[in-house]
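To whoever picks this up:

The nightly regression suite flagged 4Fe-4S dicluster domain-containing protein as changed. Nothing in the input moved, so I suspect the structure step. Input below, exactly as stored in the fixture:
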Amino acid sequence: MNRRNFIALTAGAAAAGYGIGYFLPKTRADELFLRPPGAVKNFESLCIKCGQCVQVCPYHSIELLDIAQGYSNGTSYIDAHERGCYLCDLFPCVLACPSGALDHATTQISDVKMGVGVLREHEACLAYKNENVNLSSVTKMLERKIYNDREQAVKDAVQNSVDKPCDLCVSLCPVGDAAITMAKSDGRNLPEFKQGCVGCGVCAEVCPAQIIDIAPNRSYDEIYKG
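Regenerated output under the current build:
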């Protein structure tokens, strides 16, 4: 096979692979990692690892997987415990995606289906234990680099929560009461996720006890009614 035929063959295979990507099933990596807003179910198959979503994210929430994570090297994801998605008004990450891995029909918060929040250990929740926020538990958040006014507002809210009853996961949720509220359990306060949770991960980021996880690519009904 000469060079010209080889190039034609590989180009055709790449185009075919891109085309059938829409019909490939959800992969193991898509079940493990929280993807940016607008991610389609076969995100890993369509992401071309260009990093455009990383470049335009104003909160630096989006990163690229590397060999340390063991799956899907080079595709974009969000580590909610480090920095959640603040659901930008214009979703610049979606607009920047050239491959269809992030659905351009995602134009408002109600379109976002990143996953759903899960309270991992309710006994360790500060609100449940009726304990105040301790400065040492939020020092990491307070020392983070600030990129914009909204992040400054989050930092100020965290700073103001010190030595007060904790409700950070509820008060800082960008979706609001439709996603998470403070409910009662055994007569104590306990955050409760609602149908409107989109899995942005801000609650996981700001939780002083770090006991909130996001179940990626899962719906509320799958987690709480399945």
